[in-house]
Amino acid sequence: HDLRKMEDEISMFNTESRSFAISSHLSTLEHYKIQLKEMANVSQQIDTHLKTASKNALKVSQKVRTLDVVKSRVADALTHVSSIVDLQDCYDGVEDAVIAGEYEKAAVYIHRYNSLDIKLQQQRDPARIVSASAAIKKELQANALRAVEDGDMDTLVRWIKSFPLIGAHKEGVLHLVNIIVNQVVKNEEKLLVSGGSSGDNEEEKDTKYINAMKRFLNKVIVAVEQALPYVETHFGAGGCFTFFRCWRSLLTHVLSTLLRSLWISERLDTL
Fold this sequence. Notes:
Blueprint: H1 2-100, H2 103-114, H3 118-121, H4 126-150, H5 153-160, H6 169-193, H7 202-270
């Protein structure tokens, strides 16, 4: 009887324990359920805020794009207005400078005009600029030729600086070549032709001629080295190519002339 009673008490205890455990689990699940609902509400609020922020960002982006378009149009308009002002300034400046005889200043205006858009240039009569450019080139050529004839390198450099501004690169380089020809080549060429007189023996004639040739080539090299910085500064790499190409042709001609003169001289000596 006592054993039966103990078994009943144990069974009752186990039942109560399971009931308590189940109740505890249910309570915990209920707590989690409440927390999940709160998290769901917060998530919903965050989603709502994100959608609102996305819409606001889209509106701001559209306004920024609109402002960029407006800014670009304003910049284009300002550039166009500035170009029109430059165009008028070039027309007035070229004419005033030519009338005043300030051809270097006029060349600067021609350069500014040529840098403008072609469509913009066509809004005015380009014939006036073409005529002014021809007049400027004519005066620059005349002044440069006088400097070459006078052997005045400083004055020549002053004038040839304006040649690239009017697109006359080759003409400016040729003036530099010509002044060196006048200063060095022509004088030395005369000495070379008369390098060996008829009163000298063959060995002395050869020695004098070789020395004269060395002196001639050395003076040419020095003159070219002195002129090259002007070419590089005012005419660029293209001007240097033209400069050396002119010198190659010139020296070929001069040397062939000298050798032919020497051959004729030797032939005359044998007669």
